[in-house]
Amino acid sequence: MTSTPTTLGPAASATRWTPRVWAMLITLCIVLFLDGLDVSMIGVALPSIGAELDLSTSSLQWLISGYVLGYGGLLLLGGRTADLLGRRRVFLIALAVFALASLLGGLVTSGPLLIATRFIKGLAAAFTAPTGLSIITTNFPEGPARNKALSIYTVFGAGGYSFGLVFGGLMTGVGWRWTFLLPVPIALAALAAAYVLIPKDKPAEEGGHDILGAVFSTGAMLLLVYTVVSAPEAGWSSARTVASFVGAAVLFAAFVAVELRVPHPLIRLGILRKVSLVRASLAIVAMGGSYFSWQFIVTLYLQDTLQWSALELALALLPVGLMVTASAFYSDRLVGRFGTGPIIATTLTVMAIGYFAFLRIDTSPSYLAVILPAVLMIGIGWIGFPAVNIQATSGIEDHEQGLAAGVLQTSMQVGPALVLAVTTAIITSGAPVSTPAEALDAFRPGLVFAGAVAAAGALVAIVGLVLARQDDAEPDIEPEPELELEAA
């Protein structure tokens, strides 16, 4: 790694990874670990929460979607705020709010209040996620060092998910409230470490607070996700749903109009011409949307219908997290050898095959013969997650790393929320079920849809890879010199 002077911190200029650099990276990783931990623990606890608080399937979805509403709705603002106000300051404040919301979630006694705490946690994560990613990308120079740091970072998220499955099963056995309380001491410890280890940085010298753009973009995101999530209950063709879709479109149009006119826009629309960022965003929508939809169905079927315990379900899905955690030892080397495009295309293809293989499940499924092979293939899909992050931030200037991270994380949250909402509409559109066989018949179209989403993502990645290779193969043709005509 070449020594390069910088004001951002010691990591970017260090010729080796010092203990302080490692400590800073691990602290950021722990915060991402909490995100994975939180998502998987809540997913395992959903049936227990629904039973105690008397929540329906559509209401339980709001424990996931409420988090996504806050997260996805404010991610662009979160990434841009980190650039404008300083990454360290934004990260510390948001992490403190995350810890407080976790504590409140473990204490409330009603479904709406619990959903509200999830929304607040989503708001906090909308600032910690892009800020943490931009702290890494601005403190590690592009190339092997950044690839290694991002691989470690994203694998901690997967590790949080895998540990969250086990902890979620164990905590739910004691009481589902512990799934909310467990992250509190971890978040507080990470907050203290971040205060000491994250280097101070200066806000962007140029820029301003695009308040109007923030209002329009946040309103559009919130209204779009809310509309899709609530449409199954209200009806896709109802006046409320149609009006909400129209309102979201108007807000998006207003946002674009503002961004084209203000001197310091919330998002420079030109960044969306960065093909690598767009491809990475589509890949993460396919990866996250298909998986969260599949996990939602599997949780309801195995726990509610087949009466599996929370711990049994957690252990059944554990190989997904373990495989991605193990990839920490080689994902950066894979990217260095093959590039991000081939890895993303291959892993998404295997993931799609895993979903379709899961369709062999019946009312008395064999774990070794049916469930485990599908789970392993789905886990291979997540090995491409570090490559997606690397692809999204490659070639982006330091002053827009927070913005690029916000675009990617917005895709990761809003995209899967829309996919999950459609999946929920599919599985709840039929008649009430009373037997395991009827429940499985109701769930199968949702499983097919999840597989189709992953397959579509794989197809986009493959097409992008082919086009990129064609561009590389085309020779540069020098234009022929113009012939000078002699005067008659």
From TrEMBL:
Task: Provide the protein name.
Answer: MFS transporter
**Cytoplasm among keywords:** no
> Record's SUPFAM superfamilies?
MFS general substrate transporter (SSF103473)
Q: Which domain of life is it from?
A: Bacteria
Q: How does it sit in the membrane?
A: Multi-pass membrane protein
Keywords on record: Cell membrane, Membrane, Transmembrane, Transmembrane helix, Transport
Where's the Major facilitator superfamily (MFS) profile domain? Answer: 24-469
Pfam families, alphabetically?
MFS_1
Where do the TM regions start and end?
21-47, 59-78, 90-113, 119-138, 150-172, 178-198, 210-229, 241-260, 280-302, 308-330, 342-361, 367-390, 402-427, 447-468
One annotated GO molecular function: transmembrane transporter activity
Recorded hits in PROSITE patterns, A to Z, give:
MFS, SUGAR_TRANSPORT_1
The family database entries (Gene3D superfamilies) matched by this protein are listed as: MFS general substrate transporter like domains, Multidrug resistance protein D
Location in the cell reads:
Cell membrane
Q: Quote the cellular component terms of the Gene Ontology held in the record.
A: plasma membrane
